[in-house]
Amino acid sequence: MGATSRDDAEAQKENYEEALVAATLKQEGRELEPAPEGKVLEEILVSTEDVVAETDPYPGFLNIFHVRTREDVVRREALIQPGQRYSSALVEETTRNLRSLRLFSVARIVPVKGHAPGTVSLLVVTKDLWSLRLNSDFSAVGSLLQYLRLQGTEQNFLGRGKKLAVDFTLRLDTLSLGQSYTDPRVLGSRWSLAESAAIIIGRESGKAEGSRGSLSVSRPLYSLSTPWSTSASVAWNVETNRVYRGADIWQLPFPDGPAVPYVYRTEEVAGGVSYTRSYGTRYKWNVGGTLGAYHYAYDPPAESMLSDAQVDWFRRNYLPRAEDAGYASLSLRAFEARYEVLRDVDSYALSEDFQMGHSASVTVRYAPPVFSTTSHFAELGVAARYRFRLGDALTTASAAAAIRRQLGEGAEWNNRRWAVELWQATPKVLGGRFVARGLLDVNIDDLFDRVTLLGGGNGLRGARVDAYSGKRLLLFNVEYRTAPLVVRTVHLGGVLFFDSGSAFNDKPHMVHTVGIGARLLFPQFNVMPFRFDFGYVLNDTNPPVGSRFSIAGGQLTDLRPGFLDSPL
C-alpha cells in the first residue's frame, strides 16, 4: 500500500506502530470513531503494508521477493462481522490472534466512522514480516558455537499464511537436515496440520545416527468463545546423545575406574489424542482429557566398551529412566481472560500481549500396568501464575510442582519437583527499564536423572560454558535496558547486567557476574531483538576473554524451565 512516506520518518522514530496507523488513516481518508461500542459494524477495511516501506533502510526491490499477505487471510481471523454490534473485547481478541500468527511486525485494528449514521467500521492495519528468509537461532559463547539452527523458510507461502521450511541444525556433535510444513487453516477451516521430519548425522563419523519427526492434527481453541478443541499427534526421536561441558564431552567420575563419557543412545516414540471443553467468558475453565502412550529407551552405545560395573553405575546415576507406558489424564485450566498490550518490555516499539491476572492448571495422569508393572503409576502436576500491573511496572509470579506415585509392589513416591519464579519489569527509569527475575528449580529423586548445566548464555553470562552442573538451580538476573536509539526503524539499545547463579545438588554456591550488552531489533524481520553480552566473573575463575561473549536471539530473562508451564 505504501502508506508511510518520508514525512512520517520522525514520527516513526517515536512510535513505529502509531505512525503506520496514522499514515493509513490519512491514505484511506477515514477518521477515528471515539465511541464505537455497541454500534452496528458497517464494513471491515484491510490495509496491508509491504515489508519494506519508504522509511525503511532497505532497498524497495526486496518486496519483489515477498508475496504480501492476502486480504482473506487477515479477514478470516475476524471474530466480528459486518452487521454485528461492535465489541471492543472481540476486536482486541482478533488483534491478538493476528499477532500470534507471526506473519506481521505490526497488527493493529482501529474503529473508524462509518458512512451511515450510527455505524462504525474496522480498519485493520498490518505490516508483513519478511517471510522468504533464513530464520536463525543460535547460541555462542566466545569462539564456541554451541548451537546453530538455520531454517530456509517461506513462512507465508504465496501470502496464504502457510509455512514451508527446510532445516539445518548444527550441534557440537551432530548436524541434522530436515523439512517441515505447517498449515494453521487447512482448506480455510479451523483445523490445523503440522508435520516435520529430519535425519541426524554424526559430525565425526559422517554417518546417519538417527532421525526425528512429528505429525499433529488439531482444532484449537481459536477464540475465548470456542466451546471445544481436539488434537491427535505422534512424534519420534532416535539419536545418540552426547552431553558436553564446554567443548568436550562430559567425563563422569566412575568411582572404581576410568571416567565414563556422558554418551547414550535414545529411542523415544510418543502419541496421543486429546479433547477439551471450554467454559466461561471473563473467567475461563478448560476441562480436558488425553489418552496416550510412549516408549522411552536409553542405553550406552554398543561401541562404548564399558564394563558391566560401569554400565550399571551409569544407569543408576545418570541415564534417564527407560519406560514404556500407556496412560489417561484429566486436566483443568482456569485463567482470567484479561489482556494488556505493552511496549518496550521484551521488544522495542512493537506491541506485546500479556495475559493478566491468574492462570492455574491441574493435571492428573494414571498409567495402568499395560506394558510392565514398573510402568504402573499415578502422577499429579500443578502450575500457577499471577501477573499484575501497577502503573508502568509489570510483575509475574509463577510456581509449579509435580509428584509421582509408583503403584503395585514396591510402591513409593518419586519424581518430586517444584519450581518458583518471580519476574519484574520496573517503570521507565531514564527512558529505560530495570528487568529482574529470580528462579529456583528443585528436583528430588528424579527417575529420569535430569541434570541442569549453567554458565555462558544460558543464565550466567561471562562464566565458562556449562561450567556448573546439578539437579537443582538457583538463578538471579538483573538488567537495566536502555531506551533504544532508532535509526530509520532499526532499534539499538544497551544493557547493564548482574547475574548470580548456582547449579547444585545439596547446597548452592552462588557465582556472581557483571557485564554489558547490546540489543538489536530489525522490526521488518523479527519481533524480538538479538542480544550481545559480555560478562566478568566476580568470585570464580574467569574464562579467556573471547569466551565471555554470548550471542543469541531474544531476552535472557525469557529462558525458563518449561516445567513452570507444563509440569507433566
* Rg (CA only): 26 Å
Parts with pLDDT < 50 across at least 5 consecutive residues? 1-14
Distance between the ends: 47 Å
Structural class of the helices, strands and pairings?
A: mainly beta
Strand content: over 45%
Helix count, per DSSP?
Answer: 5
State the oligomer. single chain
Mean pLDDT: 89
- What portion of residues is helical? under 10%
Which word captures the global form? globular
The largest sheet, given as strand count, sense and whether it forms a barrel, is: 20 strands, antiparallel, barrel
Count the strands? Answer: 31
Quick overview of this protein structure:
The chain is mainly β.
Give structural attributes.
disordered N terminus, about 10% helix, 20-stranded antiparallel barrel, mainly beta, about 575 residues, three-stranded mixed β-sheet, single chain
Question: What do you see in this structure?
Answer:
This protein has helices spanning 9-14, 16-28, 71-75, 88-100, 308-317; strands spanning 40-49, 104-113, 119-128, 132-141, 144-154, 163-171, 174-183, 192-202, 208-219, 228-242, 244-245, 248-249, 251-252, 260-261, 263-279, 283-299, 323-336, 338-342, 352-367, 377-390, 393-406, 412-425, 433-444, 452-454, 468-470, 472-481, 485-487, 490-504, 511-521, 530-537, 549-553. The protein is mostly beta strands. The protein has a 20-stranded antiparallel barrel. Strands 1-3-2 form a three-stranded mixed β-sheet, with helices on both faces. A hairpin with a 2-residue loop joins strand 4 and strand 5. Mean pLDDT is 89; it is low at 1-14.
